[in-house]
Write a structure and sequence with these properties.
Shape: elongated
Number of domains: 2
Helix content: over 70%
Number of helices: 10
Oligomer: single chain
Length: about 220
Amino acid sequence: MACAVALLGRSVLPLIAGLVAVPLARRWLEKRRARGEEDAKGAGVVDLCGALVGELRAGHEPGQALLVAVRDTDVLGEAGARLSAAARFGGDVPRALVQAAGEPGLDGLAGVAACWRVAVGSGAGLAAGLARLESALRADRRRREELRAQLSGAWSTVVLLAVLPVLGMGLGAALGARPLEVLLHSTAGLVCLVTGGLLEVCGLLWAARIVRAGEAG
């Protein structure tokens, strides 16, 4: 697209802008993918708690229950392998859970570690504690999903702000105003282009920050 604009406007400025935008777009995509992986791991922690409760209530001892639950929950990655090793070879399971909780999306495992320690130290029912933890984590995820749905309109506004200048230039070109020639080949146009671009970036960052603050609760 940048090449097409550069050819139409007979200027290298759109091409330079496109080259600058590529790493920024890649970074945005990486953040979005990381956020998706974090959400998947968070859902995996909830499923892990549910599987643990089911195995414990079926009569399995905690270590064996954890092995089965981790095997059935395949989104934990390396953290799941470490938990399985601790459960299989008699390691410090609460410590392994706390270490795994430091990874993005796995913070709910800290609650599992706390339940495990209380059950071992006082003899309290591990299944009951994990069931309450599962309910709390599931409610928190539901609240976040509802908030994200409510903020989808705000994200739509951010996207509209991003494409509005492009639509304006397209409308100007359709009316015969030659916006690319004015913006790329005149001093006033270049000043307007740079100033407008900076204001556009600042506005998008500001709007995105507001929306993310709302998502964070």
